[in-house]
Structures are given as structure tokens and as C-alpha cells.
Amino acid sequence: MVTRIFSWLAGLTLVLVFMVIISPDLFRGYVFSEDRRSSGRRVYETYCIGCHGQTGLGDGEASIFLNPKPRNFVNGQFKFFYFGEAGPLPSDDSLKITIRNGIQGAAMPAFPLLTDQEIRDVTTYLKSLREGGWVEPAPVQAAGVVIEGTTPSEIFANAGCNACHQLDQQGAVGGIGPNLTQVGSRLSVDQIKESIINPTAVTAAECPGGPCPQGVMPQYFKDRLTPEQIDTLANYLAEQK
Ligand code: HEC
Ligand code: HEC
Description:
It is a single chain. By secondary structure, the chain is mainly alpha-helical. It folds into 2 domains: 24-128, Cytochrome Bc1 Complex, Chain D, domain 2; 152-238, Cytochrome Bc1 Complex, Chain D, domain 2. The chain has 11 helices and 4 strands; from the N terminus they run H-H-H-H-H-H-H-H-E-E-H-E-E-H-H. The chain has helices at 2-22, 24-31, 36-47, 49-52, 92-101, 116-128, 152-158, 161-164, 189-197, 221-224, 227-238, and strands spanning 166-167, 172-173, 206-207, 210-211. Strands 1-2 form a two-stranded antiparallel ribbon. The protein has a two-stranded antiparallel sheet with strand order 3-4. A hairpin with a 2-residue loop joins strand 3 and strand 4 (210-211). It binds heme C (HEC) (2 copies). One heme C binds at residues 82, 159-161, 163-165, 176-178, 183, 187, 192, 195-196, 199, 203-204, 207, 212-213, 216-218, 221, 233.
């Protein structure tokens, strides 16, 4: 009896060892300590490959039906810079917003259920697909970079508010922060100013993707906009009812 259990266990062990050898991917998470890139690859192959393609060329199976086409990660142009990066490549923070929230008006879905770690890993992986390597964008120098513009439209566009906020009067379709089309009917000039100068003071309740994310609205506007620009913008927004 004991011998039978032993030979049964030995057989089972052999089968397991054999499976790990022929199919290491299946066991990577359990048996091997994996590096972040291979975990990123797993996220990519599970959720992104159907559109962005095996090697990141944007030529996944679904891509023929899509317009705009999925981004080509090998040598494509990026479009979404939520933190005023000069480009041509976005920061990890911008990529995180794109992946977490998706892209309105395009097939790029939101991925609310991926963990922050999974998003970091898949970001590392997709950056590794870039031909010639990935070049980190220069960090935004908060006080150093001046935002140009004197009219509300110029300031709103140049400051990048339109990347995150919908504002019908300006044709802005951002879907990250609250819709500002009627912001004047819920906030006073002073409250709007406060939101621009110190976005973490009060967190708005409802954003298009659900409860508003904290710490996503940049905190550098008080350094990069003049007091006159902030007044112009806040007064204009307060009139939108
Ligand atoms: C159903 C198809 C689809 C799936 C699945 C998909 N994407 Fe996309 N993705 C798109 C499309 C389409 C665009 C281009 C949108 C545009 O150009 O406005 C895009 C664009 C992007 C961009 C470029 C943003 C920029 O600044 O230009 C990134 C980054 C991205 N996707 C990451 C991912 C990741 C990571 C996954 C998996 C977790 C994923 N996508 C899954 C369709 C998809
Ligand atoms: C990277 C994305 C992003 C950018 C860029 C951005 N915002 Fe926001 N904004 C948010 C998010 C997210 C919230 C909600 C969370 C919060 O209140 O901090 C918000 C909240 C606000 C609110 C409060 C709205 C309400 O209903 O309570 C105002 C007003 C506002 N933003 C104005 C602006 C203006 C003006 C600019 C440009 C100078 C700007 N935002 C740029 C993401 C952004």
C-alpha cells in the first residue's frame, strides 16, 4: 500500500517536472521569479494583442475593422499627453491614464480592473517594443514652462485642459475629469479658481469613468499660468451654465 502511494507520488512529481520543462510559461508565476517585463507581456497578450498585434505594429486581428487604427507601438505617433509633455513620447503617467480610462471616440477600451502594478508592467512591455528604444520625455519643469495665451480659448487649449475635460463651447471632448460644459451652475468663480490652483483641496465627485480619480489633475497650473490668466479662465468658466 505504502509503496503504491510512493510510486504514485513519484509519478505525479515526474509529470509536474515534465510540464514545467515543456511549458514554462504556464508555471512562470508560481515556479520562477519573473521579471516585470514578462508579467507585462502576459497582460499584453491577454488584453492588448487582439488590437495592437503580436509585435506591437497595431495590426491585431480586430484592427481591420477599426478607425482610428490601434496605435503602432513600434514606430507610431502618440497623441495623448495629459501632463503637458513636449512629446513625441508620453510619460508613464500619461500612458497610465490612457490605459486606465481608454480613449473616447476610439475603440481603445478602459481597463478599470487591471491593478496599478499590471498597468506599470504592461507599460514597461509596450515601451520595450519601440524601434530604437524608448526615450523618456523631458520632465515638465513646473515653474520654468510658461503657458501662452490671453483669451479663454487659447489658455484652455494651451494649458491642455481639453485633454481631460469636456467643454462643448470649445469643442473639447476629454473624458478624464468632470464635464465643464455647465460648470458655472455648480461652482462659483472662487471655487473654480481654487480647483485650478489647488486641485487636491476638493475632489469632484463624478467623472465620466466613475468616481473622480484624485491627484490626476496636474498641480502645476499655479506656477505655469499667471494670475491674470487664471482669472480670465475662471471668469469664463463661471459663465458657462
Ligand atoms: C479593441 C481594440 C483595442 C484594445 C483591446 C486595446 N487597444 Fe489600445 N488603442 C486602440 C486604438 C484604436 C487606439 C488608437 C486611438 C486613437 O488613435 O485615437 C489605441 C491606442 C493606444 C495607446 C496610444 C495612446 C496615445 O497616446 O497615442 C496606448 C498606449 C494603448 N492603446 C495601450 C493599450 C493597452 C496597454 C492595451 C491592453 C491593456 C490596449 N491598448 C488594448 C485599440 C485597442
Ligand atoms: C490630466 C487631466 C486633467 C487636466 C489636464 C486638467 N484637469 Fe481639471 N480635473 C481633472 C480631474 C480628474 C478632476 C476631478 C478630480 C478633482 O477634483 O481633483 C478635475 C477637476 C476640475 C475642476 C472641478 C470640477 C468640478 O466639477 O468640481 C475644474 C473646474 C477643473 N478641473 C478645471 C480645469 C482646468 C481649467 C484645466 C486647465 C487649466 C484642467 N482642469 C486641467 C483632470 C484634469
